[in-house]
Amino acid sequence: MNMGSLLEPGMLVRHPQKPDWGLGQVQSNIGGKITVNFEHAGKQVIVADRIDLIPIYEPPKTT
User: Fold this and answer.
1) Which residue from 19, 35, 55, 61 has the least number of CB within 10 angstroms?
2) For the domain 3-56, what is the CATH code?
3) Contact in structure between 38 and 21 (CB atoms under 8 Å)
């Protein structure tokens, strides 16, 4: 099982080979194709079998 199967819409990720793309937000994950909207590269479709996106976990916001 690859990491891609665990990614859900709204999660934040980074592309391991494209750090210049910046932070990305998962838009959809259908059939191993993950659509991500990156800060500096826009919307990209990532094939989960080829690229393991890196999940970014933000600490909860405190008020």
Assistant:
1) 61
2) 2.30.30
3) yes
